[in-house]
Design a protein that fits this description.
alpha/beta, YaeB-like fold, 7-stranded mixed sheet, 11 helices, 14 strands, 34% helix, elongated
Length: 360
């Protein structure tokens, strides 16, 4: 348990039979002016991944969280239909989940932040598309028919195609074409049913089933093509969708090759499943290119390294360890500093300074 988790006090969430350790968010939310605002001490990596506190936008998010001491569950928040005192606030591209308790007896009342994450407003429908001659169209096949494919999550398909540019390979005619499976980056709310929910464009379970069918049919279509396989690059949080889809795929996927760019923490399970299905992995299967991914994957770096070693990829395991060393030290120091610095944001600032994280 890190230093952050050893501070504060333990509180039971009203709708769960679990206890979490909370500390004051900042010195401005210690209850001397307005309601005290606490945050789960273990959210340090998630907070730093979602909020760049060295930027103006990040500082604005910090200020808005501090303002919860006055607003609570007021007009600027969404209320959970099933859990009356559970709320969420949308602050730019950051979503903050919290619940409100009243002081009773010797129990502290206040606002308790239980989750912090990034969101986007999605513009396009999920599904299979084809990029050819600079134009993206809905695909009329139900498998990856081209040599390369992408699986991605983002605000829009246009954003994805721009993200793919450095990775898309030209064919012998110097033309670029590929297929992409698009899943909106904010596809399902895992915290209950909300009265005014964020945009939901599709049912995640349907998307998981669709992707599973695409993978299985692609394998079948490639089975008689000796020496050939379909290259699939998986971006960002779409690794979570892929991970769930793989549980539905029967048989081998040895005609499919995978590479992951800035995946989320589901990557450990995903790689394990791919190895069990004899799928191929690229020379450098897990690439970390963003600030957010660096911080997120630092949380599970030991697990990633372990699974890579178990499938005979010690050099890739060393890559992950090396890329996350600085972040690991920064997060550990941030946690340890909380022993002497009694609020969350002070520890977050120290970790951010040591981590030297930049960009998104």
């Amino acid at each position: 348990m890190n230093g952050l988790a050893s501070l504060g006090h333990i509180a039971q969430q009203p709708h769960k039979n679990t206890h979490r350790r909370f500390i004051h968010f900042s010195q401005n939310t210690d209850g001397r002016c307005g309601r005290p605002v606490y945050i789960d001490a273990q959210l340090l990596p998630d907070f730093l991944a979602a909020v760049d506190i060295s930027s103006f936008a990040g500082l604005e998010v910090v200020k808005k969280i501090e303002q919860l001491r006055a607003l609570g569950g007021g007009i600027n928040s969404h209320q959970n239909k099933d859990i009356a005192n559970s709320h969420k606030c949308l602050m730019a591209k950051v979503e903050v989940h919290y619940y409100i308790t009243q002081a009773t007896g010797n129990k502290s009342g206040g606002i308790y932040i239980t989750n912090v994450g990034s969101i986007t407003n999605n513009k396009d429908k999920p599904g299979l598309y084809r990029y050819q001659n600079g134009i993206v169209r809905a695909n009329n096949t139900d498998f990856f028919a081209l040599e390369q494919a992408f699986i991605g999550s983002d605000q829009s398909i246009d954003n994805l195609t721009n993200r793919f540019k450095p990775y898309a390979e030209a064919d012998g005619w110097n033309s670029i074409s590929y297929e992409l499976f698009f899943s909106p980056s904010y596809d399902i709310d895992k915290h209950g049913t909300w009265i005014t929910p964020a945009q939901k464009l599709f049912n995640e379970s349907q998307s998981i089933v669709e992707l599973a069918k695409i993978l299985q049919k692609t394998q079948q279509a490639m089975i008689n093509k000796s020496g050939s396989f379909t290259k699939i690059r998986v971006f960002d949080s779409s690794s979570r969708i892929l991970d769930k889809s793989l549980t539905l795929v029967k048989g081998h996927l040895d005609k499919l090759g995978f590479e992951f760019i800035d995946p989320d923490t589901a990557i450990t399970s995903t790689i394990s499943q791919l190895a069990a299905k004899n799928a191929k992995l690229s020379k450098s299967p897990v690439q970390i290119t963003s600030r957010r991914s660096t911080i997120t994957l630092t949380k599970v770096r030991n697990e990633i390294s372990s699974i890579l070693r178990s499938i005979g990829r010690p050099e890739n395991a060393s890559e992950i360890t090396e890329k996350t060393n600085v972040s690991s030290v920064a997060l550990s120091v941030g946690g340890a500093l909380s022993h002497s610095k009694s609020n969350f944001i002070t520890a977050a600032r120290q970790a951010n300074l040591l981590g030297k994280w930049q960009g998104k």
